[in-house]
Amino acid sequence: MYRIGELAKQYDINTDTLRYYEKEGLLVPSSIASNGYRIYSSADAKTLGVILRAKAIGFSLSDIKTLLSIEVDKANKECLDVKLVVDDKLAQVNAKIEELQTFQRSLKRLSDACCGGHESAQDCTILQALESESLTILSECHHD
Amino acid sequence: MYRIGELAKQYDINTDTLRYYEKEGLLVPSSIASNGYRIYSSADAKTLGVILRAKAIGFSLSDIKTLLSIEVDKANKECLDVKLVVDDKLAQVNAKIEELQTFQRSLKRLSDACCGGHESAQDCTILQALESESLTILSECHHD
DNA sequence: ATAAACCTTGGAGTAAACTCTAGGGTCAAG
DNA sequence: CTTGACCCTAGAGTTTACTCCAAGGTTTAT
């Protein structure tokens, strides 16, 4: 049994974070002492471990809430239910990566076209590209 | 010369966005009519074009502000100044991509290890991985 | 004269995941 | 009996880039 400060220290997080997780329904302490203090059981601590690990992998608190709801009703859930959450997240991550790679290509093309020297920025190709309506430097040429 | 609604329509954005850009110091209309209406010049419109293109590439409004401040003082700036902004952004994007690729690998390993079938989630490898303190499934084995 | 369409300001609301503050109660040690 | 460390609640603040709202002034057309 731990008080909020003990649990927070153990997992190196803020006590406010724990109160926040409670408000969000992620981790409700299993009991409240007569003085109003939150009391966390070892099972609560274990759940916190799951939350923190899932967060480290990149799940949002909302994803984690779904995962935990499956966890508590494991017996009546299928592997499929769990895998769907993971695969959905994977699709989101893949989409985000592709979006960023598009930015990356644009930036690289911009950077490569610029001498980056002590010449006046008056004729800088980067500024010209941003001023030009066609953004020729950035457009990928899919035609030959 | 355009009124706020005309300029917004021309670039297919909200008038509130223009007022927001003004508040942020990105695009201040070159004059105000006697009735208090904002009046945008063609130069203002051109600047808005730059802002919107830079945004499409992935620059934040704060990045764009830096870029614009260089732009207005081009003559006294060097290519280097411009390139530094772009390269800095490129480094941020690269870092973000790598972070996401780590998530991607973790998620893929999690997903691949799960049958995803109608079996009970009781023995689901994904849930087991999240419950396990070692996260063995997720850890990359750099040793042989 | 009046309605529609435009403009103004100031301020609130949105998502995400906390973090911090104010003001106060609880508990153990000296 | 008071000091310090801990706990409580409610609510505001953080970041980014807007979007929406209320309450009102202006312009244009009928």
In short:
Two copies of one chain form a homodimer. Chain A has 144 residues and is mainly α. In chain A, 60% of the residues lie in helices and 5% in strands.
Please characterize this protein's 3D structure.
The first copy, chain A, has 144 residues and is mainly alpha-helical. The first copy, chain A, folds into 2 domains: 2-58, Orthogonal Bundle (Multidrug-efflux Transporter Regulator, Chain: A, Domain 2); 78-144, Multidrug-efflux Transporter Regulator, Chain: A, Domain 2 (Orthogonal Bundle). Chain A has helices spanning 4-11, 15-23, 42-57, 61-72, 79-113, 125-131; strands at 2-3, 31-32, 38-40. Chain A has a 3-stranded antiparallel sheet. In chain A, helix 4 (61-72) packs antiparallel against helix 5. Chains A and B meet through helix 3, helix 4, helix 5 and helix 6 of A and helix 3, helix 4, helix 5 and helix 6 of B. Chain B binds a DNA duplex (30 and 30 nucleotides) through residues 3-5, 14-17, 19-20, 24, 33, 35-38, 55, 60-62.
The mean pLDDT of chain A is 89
Number of helices of chain A: 6
Q: Kindly, what is the distance between the CA atoms of the first and last residues of chain A, rounded to a whole number of angstroms?
A: 69 Å
Which stretches of chain A are low in confidence, meaning pLDDT under 50 for 5 or more residues running? none
Specify the oligomeric state: homodimer
Proportion in β-strands of chain A: under 5%
Strand count, sense and barrel status of the largest sheet of chain A are: 3 strands, antiparallel
Structural class of chain A: mainly alpha
Largest interface: A-B, 54 and 54 residues
Strand elements of chain A, count = 3
Shape of chain A: elongated
- Can you identify the CATH class of the largest domain in chain A? Mainly Alpha
Q: What sequence of helices (H) and strands (E) makes up the elements of chain A?
A: EHHEEHHHH
Identify the CATH architecture of the largest domain in chain A: Orthogonal Bundle
